[in-house]
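Long-time lurker. I teach an intro course on protein structure, and each term I like to show students one example going from raw sequence to a predicted 3D structure in token notation. This year I'd like something fresh instead of my usual example. Would anyone be willing to generate the tokens for the chain below so I can use it in lecture? Attribution to the forum is fine with me.
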Amino acid sequence: MRQRKVQNMTRGVIWKQILRFFFPILIGALFQQLYNTVDAVVVGQFAGKEALSSVGGSSAQILNFVFSFFIGLSTGSTVVIAQYFGAEQDDAVDTALHTSYLFACLCGLVLGGLGVLFTTPLLELLGTPEELMAQSGAYIRILFGGLVFTLIFNMGSGILRAVGDSKRPLYVLMACCLMNIVLDLLFVMQFHLGASGAAIATNISQAASAAAVTWLLVKKTPGMKLCLKRLRISRPMLARILQIGFPTALAGSMFSISNMVIQTAINGMGVDPIAAWTAYGKVDSLWWMIDQAFSTAVVTFVGQNFGAGLADRIERGIREVLVMEILMAFGASLFMNTCGEFLLGLFTTDQTVVSLGSGLLRFITPFYAVYVINEVLSSALRAEGYVMVSTVVNFVGVCIYRVCWVSLFCPEGSTMKHVLSCYPASWICISVIMAVYYLFHQKRILAKMRGRRVEQLQSAA
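-- Reply from a regular --
Happy to contribute to a lecture. Here you go:
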């Protein structure tokens, strides 16, 4: 058996293991978000609210769609590697490593090329105001040109986290985020390149992060070694990864698609609502970083324990995570409502925009705790290989519901709050459905695990 210096989550005090893994991911997500947040702050303060709307608004929705889809696909790699790691199947871990890395490279090149080609039609589809088309188009094309670096970093980080290493991806992000801040100030303030300068700075920083995580996988990760000469796609392994990752990607992209529909409705309200929604989205992202960090911790924890056949440990872990994240959801809502005007003021000095954004914070953030139920339970089921139900639930309860709400119940002239009320309503819907499904189906999953565990122990004896 190999010596493991990475974090094995099949033993130890559960809540400590979860939090020890969670906090580096959260801090890493904070620095990841800072890539785009710094773009928004620098551009909003030094290039005006039109430039701020160009790096947010339609641009952000298009980019989030692509990122969400691929991050969903990479979840398949995280789950598969975590399961093999927990079961101590080293050859399978190696095959999954090389298949996943090459898959990320190919996806980055193909999706990046398509994104550059279809930028203008996508912006027009979302009803982007004419005065924002030039800056938004330039910003998106540049970022799509460097998409391969972003996808390599995200896949590499997911692989490291699957074996319990959440700290080194954090260190890479911290260094590259600082690089991005310096380059943003240089290209936007000094060279006056506006939104395009922010995109160039992000691409350079993402290229550095991709190189760093690749080096870690090649040279510095116990139990696995990436060899660039051995990169190839194993069809059976890719099929297993996509079996989990593709439905997860669809579920994530459904959120983005519904957000695009909502963005289209907001685009018809003028520059001030677009800027307010953009600034609100940056503040709102603080909570989603917490949520996604818990989700990643759940996937890794459940995946490793599922591979090891530890049903009781999974059951206890899910309960503990639910309690921890719900408490954090209430704390995040309180913080954002208390400090909302200050946080929004980081992105713009326009008081109309700040006032609109503050109203959105008061309206939406109290419902964070409701969404936690869906996220934690869906993550646990994904880690166990059961992904289709969460995909269907998100499709109906998020995508279809929100599209129908905007299309049927939001006539021209509707207020922002009227349009955006579909967010808390959809969270309540999907959380209730997932809770009911989980309570019944998880019992069967754990019963099967316990049966297999007994058989393994009897065989070993």
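Some talking points for your students: The chain has a mean pLDDT of 84. The chain has 17 helices and no strands.
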